[in-house]
Amino acid sequence: MIFSAKLNHFTQQPHWLRDNHYLHHGHRPPTESFVSCVKSAFFMHNETLNIWTHFLPCFLFVFLFMKTLGAPNLSGTDKFVIGSFLTGAFLCHMFSTAFHTFSCHSEKVARFFQKLDHIGIALLITASFVPWLHYGFAYIEPLYAHSYLAAVVSLALLSIWFSLDDKFGTAAYRPVRALVFVLFGGSGGVPALHWLYIHQDIIWTHVNLKTSFLSLLLMGALYIFGAALYACRVPERFFPGKCDYVLHSHQLFHVLVTSAAIVHYIGISKLLEHVKSTYEANVDIQPLNSI
């Protein structure tokens, strides 16, 4: 990576590109060119790591998706359930990559890809619920799984509708954006407590169940911590102009989101192992996360 000579100070940016006033230098000016936007990914500016921290994990999710499809010991339902989560994770990361790459094209293009980015977040949250609800409840009482999933889809549609509002994408609504998605993801606390109540007698004596539950808690903590950094603009608010290129809140948010998705994949793979060994004892299941 090398630094581009055509970078602006925050005060030189048009209003629609002024997102974080704690980042002083390294802002790309409007290009009006998709080719220039793509080329800029190979120069150092304050969006460079935002691009790569979500583009590179896309390859991991594609690999895991293909691995899941090719697993001979998984049923078609298993492949659909796990594949749904991996597809959501891929789309979230790819939409985010596209937004951070093309955000400097023009106001119209930036707004479009920002909405796509927000939709990607909603898709990831929704897809994260699918395998956990399926393996957590479908083998016990399908009605629970279907009811919770219906509620999740309803919240997802509401979040997407909210994301399509132009005001939602402005810098002033950054805390609101974070809160909306935290509340959406946090709604999983209801089925989580329900699941914990059902399995309270065995959760700490079954390694896979315990690992799955702890993974769920860690995933939630990573998402919430990342959203808090993003909303509060930490650490750059304490070091204005010092985190312009590296270690600002959006980059940290990306790393934590990816980490949470990987932790969740490990957790649902352990839950899958438990379900198969408990309810389908004759099925020989290999750990999904044995890469």
UniProtKB/TrEMBL annotation:
The entry's keywords:
Membrane, Receptor, Transmembrane, Transmembrane helix
Q: Does the keyword Membrane apply?
A: yes
**What is the membrane topology noted in the UniProt record heading this document?**
Multi-pass membrane protein
Subcellular location per UniProt equals: Membrane
Q: Mention any Pfam family matching this sequence.
A: HlyIII
- TM ranges are 49-68, 80-99, 119-137, 143-164, 176-198, 213-232
- Keyword set includes Membrane: yes
Q: Which top-rank group of organisms is this from?
A: Eukaryota
Please name the InterPro entries in this protein's record. AdipoR/HlyIII-related
Main location per UniProt? membrane
Its family remark reads: Belongs to the ADIPOR family.
| Name of the protein in question | Adiponectin receptor protein
The uppermost taxa in this organism's lineage are: Eukaryota, Metazoa, Ecdysozoa, Arthropoda, Chelicerata
